[in-house]
Amino acid sequence: MKSLEDGTPASPIASTNQNEFSSIMEQYMKRIALLVPFVACALAQAEDLPSGKGKDLLEKICAECHGLDVIVSQRADKDGWAAIVDSMVARGAGGSKEDLDTIVDYLAKNFAPQKKIEKAPNAAVDAKRGVR
Questions:
Q1: Is 50 helix (H, G, I), strand (E, B) or coil?
Q2: Phi, psi of 65 (to 5 degrees)
Q3: Chain Cα centroid distance, residue 109
Q4: Which domains does the chain possess?
Q5: Of 104, 76, 108, 75, whose CA–CA distance to 89 is shortest?
Q6: What is the SS3 assignment for 63-92?
Q7: Stated pTM of the model
Q8: From CA 82, how far away is CA 97, in angstroms rounded?
Q9: Which candidate, 67, 103, 96, places its Cα nearest to that of 82?
Q10: pLDDT digit string (tens) for 11-38?
């Protein structure tokens, strides 16, 4: 029988179990390594949402079907968000009417269309253009 460097006898069974264990651990580590970016991304997205009434409902109800990035990349007024939420309900999203209304209010408040900022007239620019 062979012995290990420290003089203990090497068992073929222990060696096989050690190889199996190493293989299993390697597989688990690969899976964990693949999941970490997705979990980190999901946590980052949740943290990026503005706080307020409806945030928790949005995370719970809307994130069941898609990432929050789909939501935060859009802009709409209250009627637009209501139509989007109605569309999601038609596709199977759940929630009470009160919960869905709260989500619409949250989205309309935090993800409304960005207002265009009108610049004040610039007399120096107008003078160069010949505008009076």
A1: coil
A2: -110, -30
A3: 19
A4: 1-48 (no CATH), 51-132 (1.10.760.10)
A5: 104
A6: HHCCCHHHHHCCCCCHHHHHHHHHHHHHCC
A7: 0.54
A8: 11
A9: 103
A10: 555 556 777 877 887 876 777 666 555 5
